[in-house]
Specification:
7-stranded mixed beta sheet; 248 residues; Rossmann fold; alpha/beta
Amino acid sequence: MNTVSFGSGEDTFLGISGFVADWHVWMNVFELLSTKMRCVGYDHRGSGESVALPETITKQAYVDDLISVMDKLGVEQCILGGESFGGTIAILAVLQHPERFKGLVIVDTSNSSAVPLNEGQKQFINLIKSNHLLAMQEFINSVFPEPDSEHFKRWGVRICMKPKPEVAVRCVELGSEGDTNVPVQDIEIPTLIVYGDKDSEEAIKHCTYLAKAIPNATLKVVEGAGHVPILTRPYEVVDAIDKRFSNI
C-alpha cells in the first residue's frame, strides 16, 4: 500500500480520499498543515499505486487498511479526514476504533449507510464498462464546477484512469453494501463537517444531516466550491480545521 508522510508535530492528520482518487486529493491541505503537524496519506486499495483485485475491495477492508497504515507508521492517534466516500470509511473507522482518533473531518460525503444503487449510479457503471475514459471525464467535470478548475479536471482524469474499470465499478457498488443504519450519533469526538455549496444536492443534504446528528459537530460551508474543496479551496478548509481543533 502506497503511503506518504509530511511534516512533524505533536498531532497527526490523516486523510482518506474517495472513489478511485489517490492521496493527492489531500496534497494542498497537507502542504498547509504540515508546518504544524504530521500529515499522512495513502492510496486506498485499488487506487493509485495500491493495486488490488476488485473482489478484495469492501468497506471493512478499507477500515482495516486504515488501521494497518496507522500501526505501520506508528500513529497511535490522529485527526482523521475523509473526502467523499473516504468520509464513509472515516465514520466507520471512528465508530469501530474510537480510541484511535482525536478528531474527525468529513468533506462532501454522501450517505454513510447502505442504500440501493440509484438509476444514475447504474448508468454510470454501464458507462464505465463501455467507455472508461468518457465515464471518468464526465465524473470529473461534475465534481469540479468551479470556473478556475480546468487544471484540476485534467489532473483528476489522469488520477481516476489509473485503476482498471472493474475497480471503479466495484467502488461504485460499495455504497449499496453494509449497514443500512450507521449510528453516526454515537460519534463523540470533535467533528468538522465541510461541504462546497456547488456540490450535489445529495452530498449537501447528507453533510447537513451529519452536522445535526453527530453531537460534537460543527459545519463549514465553502461558498463557490464543488465536491473537492480540499483541492480547490484549501486555505478555507485548513482555516476551519485550525479553528475546530485548536484546543484538542
